[in-house]
Design a protein that fits this description.
The complex is a heterodimer.
Chain A (H helix, E strand, L loop, with lengths): L1 H27 L7 H17 L3 H24 L5 H19 L6 E3 L6 H9 L3 H23 L3 H11 L1 H6 L4 H27 L1 E3 L6 H15 L5 H24 L8 H38 L1
Antiparallel strand pairs in A: 1-2
Chain B lengths: L1 E10 L7 E11 L4 E5 L6 H9 L6 E6 L2 E2 L5 H4 L3 E4 L13 H9 L12 H14 L16 H13 L5 E5 L7 H18 L2 E5 L3 H6 L3 E6 L2 E7 H5 L3 H23 L1
Parallel strand pairs in B: 3-8, 3-9, 6-7, 7-8
Antiparallel strand pairs in B: 1-2, 1-4, 4-5, 9-10
Helix pairs in contact in B: 3-5, 5-6
The chains are: A mainly alpha, B alpha/beta.
Bound molecules: adenosine-5'-triphosphate and magnesium ion.
Chain lengths: 306, 263
């Protein structure tokens, strides 16, 4: 059981930056960005090739750049070609399927990196720590560095303009800031984070699979929502951390549920969707209940008065 | 400061919904002019503002701001010198951001993108500007914009529009959603802010009294053109009733024309 929980924490950290990326588009830009499924696999593909070539650290930076490029594509579709945001994301995601296969040795759907050095094995050799400890420390380090950089970015003027673009686009344009540029920056940053997550995933699991990214966006949404529920204070700096917390919590919940035979592993995506639906249903449900209660109370009062 | 020469705008040209909204409109505003605009619904007042701000490009004619030809410049370029407020208090501010963050967005257009959004010095400037509104907002700078009332929001929007002094200020019925007392207050703030910085201003209003009271010129728009331009002696002696009479005369003429066309 301990091993399974440790594994869940590790996986949560590996996926943490993906959730951070989803948080940036979904909560700050307020656009559901479906590029994620493709850009995480892009990170995996890039990482597998470069890790096998002996550059596991460089792989993470290239993944970042590749992810940012994928995000830029979606931004281009949205802002210049004027394609609705969801379709724009789906288009990039589909195109990436081909691109990812191209990167993966010209069409090999599954590439193993077993035997190659990874950031995790390098850290373990360097420090002599146990396997789980190295995995968690490296995961924390990568998440920590990226979250700190993102936190800083969002204290700058550009960061503030991105927040405002998500909140009231028209107003931002009226102050001579280009919302096209802001959306482009946010989508590039978000998908860069997602691709880093994919790159780390490959080095963690020891393989890249061209189908491994499907349904990621749903896991991302669910994790964002869980993170927000856990972190009560709703400020932006807390929000970025809550994305990582949500990712870990999501994996723990799933691990416990599977462990206690609540559902089989292949139920993962169904459960994610249920989590999102339930979380989003809370506020309309509350409103409906209050209204109902009000109605019965007033009907009783009216009956008593007449 | 603002020169508009014979601009035309037709929406959806060549379709069944074709609508010729601006019809050869010309206007010249001297630096520091504060002109109020009245006119019936659909006269093209908001469309004129959109044309000035560059929301769309005009079909014909020329627009100059401070002697610079901006006819083909995009909205974001013109926004550097134009401050703009809309009728809807929701439109001018970002509800999820705080008051100081909202103010920081137009204020920091002078900054580089990577510089901190709000410094301590910026905060001092915002505090002072907010204090001048007399609404007690200087003590609530970390409050989310969405929690303010419509009047407070319009006042802050006004500050945002002038915090970097614009060359032209466009106010589109910015008090229409406010109760009479708050509207009065926002009108007063408008008067003070515009006077203090001597900003060239255009203000659309359906409040005839304010149209005469504020500024130094009153324009009347009808059917896509400016049909009356009242200023100086004539304006100072004009009463609300007098202006209403002129308004009716213009509309009456139009009706007569229609009748001639129909018969
Ligand atoms: N983007 C657009 N596409 C098509 N028609 C438009 C567009 N914008 C404005 N119009 C039309 O132009 C005409 C003038 O509209 P405008 O909003 O300028 O009127 P207004 O003088 O501001 O009226 P109000 O006092 O009601 O605000 C209207 O008939 C409107 O339907
Ligand atoms: Mg209007």
């Amino acid at each position: 059981m301990t091993n399974q929980l440790l594994g869940a924490v590790e996986l949560g950290l590996v996926y943490g930056l993906m959730v951070l990326g989803v948080f940036i588009t979904f909560r700050i830009l307020k656009i559901p960005d479906l590029t994620v499924d493709g850009s995480i696999t892009l990170g995996m593909a890039v990482s597998a090739m470069l890790t096998n070539a002996g550059h596991p650290i460089f792989a993470i930076f290239v993944a970042l750049a590749a992810g940012a490029l994928a995000g830029s594509c979606t931004a281009f579709f949205q802002t210049k070609v004027k394609i609705p945001s969801i379709l724009a994301g789906i288009m990039t995601m589909s195109a990436l399927y081909s691109i990812n296969l191209l990167i993966m040795n010209n069409g090999v759907p599954n590439i193993s990196i077993l035997g190659s050095d990874t950031v995790f094995s390098m850290f373990q050799n360097l420090t002599g720590l146990s396997k789980h400890a190295s995995l968690i420390i490296v995961g924390l380090l990568i998440c920590g560095i990226v979250v700190a950089l993102v936190e800083f970015f969002f204290t700058t003027h550009t960061g503030l303009c991105i927040c405002a673009t998500g909140d009231n686009e028209e107003m931002v344009r009226a102050t001579s800031v280009s919302t096209t540029k802001m959306k482009w920056l946010a989508l590039a940053l978000a998908n860069g984070c997602v691709a880093i997550s994919g790159a780390v995933y490959t080095q963690y699991m020891g393989y890249a699979d061209v189908t491994a990214g499907s349904g990621t966006i749903v896991i991302g949404f669910a994790s964002v929502i869980i993170g927000e529920t856990l972190c009560v204070k709703k400020s932006l700096p807390v929000g970025f951390v809550s994305a990582i917390v949500g990712s870990v919590a999501y994996r723990l919940i799933i691990a416990i549920a599977i462990r206690t035979n609540l559902f089989p592993t292949y139920f993962l995506k169904l459960v994610s969707v249920v989590i999102i639906a339930v979380a989003l249903a809370v506020s309309p449900l509350k409103a409906a209940l209050t209204e109902r209660r009000n109605k019965t109370r007033r009907e009783r009062e009216n009956a008593a008065n007449s | 400061m603002l020169q508009i020469r014979n601009i035309h705008k037709t929406f959806a040209p060549g379709t069944a919904n074709e609508k010729h909204v601006l019809k050869g409109l010309s206007l010249h505003l001297a630096p520091g002019d504060f002109a109020t605009i009245i006119g019936s619904n659909g006269a093209g007042k908001s469309t004129l503002f959109n044309a000035i701000a560059g929301t769309f490009l005009t079909d014909e004619g020329q627009i100059l701001i401070d002697s610079e030809d901006v006819t083909f410049r995009p909205e974001t370029y013109r926004a550097k010198v134009i401050g703009r407020i809309f009728q809807d208090p929701m439109k001018g501010t970002a509800p999820d951001l705080t008051i100081e963050q909202n103010l920081a967005i137009p204020y920091a257009t002078l900054k580089k993108g990577w510089q901190p959004a709000i410094t301590r010095r910026d905060r001092e400037i915002f505090r002072e500007a907010l204090a001048n509104l007399g609404m007690g907002l200087e003590d609530r700078m970390k409050t989310k914009m969405g929690l303010l009332s419509g009047g407070q929001r319009q006042a802050v929007t006004l500050l945002m529009a002038v915090i970097v002094t614009p060359k032209i200020l466009l106010l589109d019925e910015h008090t229409a959603a406010l109760d009479p007392l708050t509207a009065e207050k926002v009108f007063n703030i408008t008067r003070e802010v515009v006077a203090a910085k001597g900003i060239t201003t255009l203000m659309i209003t359906h409040n005839i009294a304010s149209a005469l009271e504020l500024g130094n010129r009153t324009l009347m728009m009808d059917d896509g053109d400016i049909v009356l331009d009242i200023q100086g002696e004539e304006r100072s002696s004009l009463t609300v009733a007098g202006l209403l009479q002129k308004y009716r005369e213009v509309k009456g003429e139009m009706l007569d024309n229609d009748r001639i066309l129909l018969s």
